[in-house]
């Protein structure tokens, strides 16, 4: 009888030991996961707080965006929405502006408006980014001799309303690929070298919170924004050693003409800021943090969204896409 008893005690001890190992592993993985999650979500907030305290400890460092980055800001898609409000906010902070957009009349109106409110120089370039290569040749010519301090890659195109890929006009799909992926990439490539040479400057890329998961019914748009995320974050590392700042902004819904297909989005609210409050807040984060939604309620929303697993987020995104599509189609019928 003795040996069996001993055997079972050993078995029990062994099981207890294995159980201990398993719980230790769970504990370690849990702690690391929580630490990584908190780090990812709060590093931006911490860098902003650090940047706000810096002037008290190192008053000799340049404080204004103008001192940090230079005199001229170039903004694409600057005649409406977020881009226009970026332009106004940067002008308020003393930047001379080059506005790049498609419609000449709107460019003239916006530059006039800005010059009447702020004592800055402005210049505009009318190009259609959907034309691809030839747009950049024109921009390069017109930018010759301008020391670009800040480049805001803002121009972006969404479908007219959410829908499945086969329902989006083929030309529009091409435009979205060429504009959303091409413009930020090629302008960064053209302008980064002069910033590198001066060891000074900032590139701001406007991505989108839609990059957080695949977005059925906005498939192409959201995928181009995922491209912007990875492109921007890779460039941030490439340019850091040259003292050039690269920032990724990932807004959620903002009140602009891009969302006009949905009257429920256009109603606004605390989660859907105006382009003007959004841009003021986003410009405030420039030079303080490298990746941000740009607006505090978007940051909170993003935080809670990230708690859900990717698969669940994709299902929710699909449901949102479906509802927005139905709303847009009904709105179209009425008009
Ligand atoms: N609004 C949102 O909810 C939201 C959310 C997340 C991310 N974003 C991103 O934020 C950026 C700005 O969006 P927004 O809502 O402010 O857009 P918007 O109100 O539609 O304004 C777009 C701007 O880009 C210009 N543009 C459009 N197509 C162009 C082309 N082919 N060539 C040259 N210029 C062109 C427009 O010029 P015209 O006036 O001549 O059309 C306009 O100035 C985009 O990258 C967008 O993806 C927006
Ligand atoms: C980096 O840029 C800042 C201004 O943005 C400047 O004050 C600093 O001297 C630069 N550092 C180097 C090493 O060039």
TrEMBL record:
Keyword Transmembrane: yes
One Pfam family per UniProt: adh_short
Subcellular location: Mitochondrion
UniProtKB keywords: Membrane, Mitochondrion, NADP, Transmembrane, Transmembrane helix
CDD domains reported for this sequence: 17beta-HSD1_like_SDR_c
TM regions (residue ranges): 17-39
GO cellular component: mitochondrion
Family designation: Belongs to the short-chain dehydrogenases/reductases (SDR) family. 17-beta-HSD 3 subfamily.
Stated name of the protein: CG13284
């Amino acid at each position: 009888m003795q040996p069996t008893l001993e055997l079972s005690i050993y078995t029990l001890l062994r099981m207890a030991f294995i159980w201990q190992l398993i719980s230790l592993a769970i504990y370690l993985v849990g702690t690391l996961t929580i630490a990584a999650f908190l780090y990812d979500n709060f590093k931006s907030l911490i860098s902003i707080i650090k940047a706000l305290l810096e002037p008290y400890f190192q008053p000799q460092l340049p404080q204004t965006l103008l001192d940090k980055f230079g005199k001229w800001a170039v903004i694409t898609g600057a005649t409406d929405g977020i881009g226009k409000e970026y332009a106004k906010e940067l002008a308020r902070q003393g930047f001379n502006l080059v506005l790049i957009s498609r419609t000449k009349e709107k460019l003239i109106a916006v530059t006039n408006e800005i010059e009447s409110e702020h004592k800055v120089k402005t210049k505009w370039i009318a190009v259609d980014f959907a034309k691809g290569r030839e747009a950049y040749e024109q921009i390069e010519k017109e930018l010759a001799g301008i020391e670009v301090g800040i480049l805001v890659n803002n121009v972006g195109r969404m479908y007219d309303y959410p829908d499945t890929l086969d329902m989006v006009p083929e030309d529009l799909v091409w435009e979205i690929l060429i504009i959303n992926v091409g413009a930020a990439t090629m302008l960064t490539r053209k302008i980064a070298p002069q910033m590198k040479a001066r060891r000074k400057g900032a590139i701001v890329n406007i991505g989108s919170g839609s990059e957080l998961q695949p977005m059925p019914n906005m498939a192409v748009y959201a995928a181009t924004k995922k491209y912007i995320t990875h492109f921007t974050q890779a460039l941030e590392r490439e340019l850091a050693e040259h003292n050039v700042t690269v920032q990724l902004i990932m807004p959620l819904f903002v009140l602009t003409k891009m969302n006009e297909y949905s009257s429920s989005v256009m109603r606004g609210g605390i989660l859907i800021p105006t382009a003007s409050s959004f841009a003021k807040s986003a410009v405030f984060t420039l030079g303080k943090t490298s990746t941000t939604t740009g607006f505090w309620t978007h940051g909170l929303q993003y935080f809670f969204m990230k708690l859900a697993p990717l698969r669940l987020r994709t299902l929710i995104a699909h449901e949102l896409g479906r509802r927005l599509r139905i709303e847009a189609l009904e709105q179209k019928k009425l008009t």
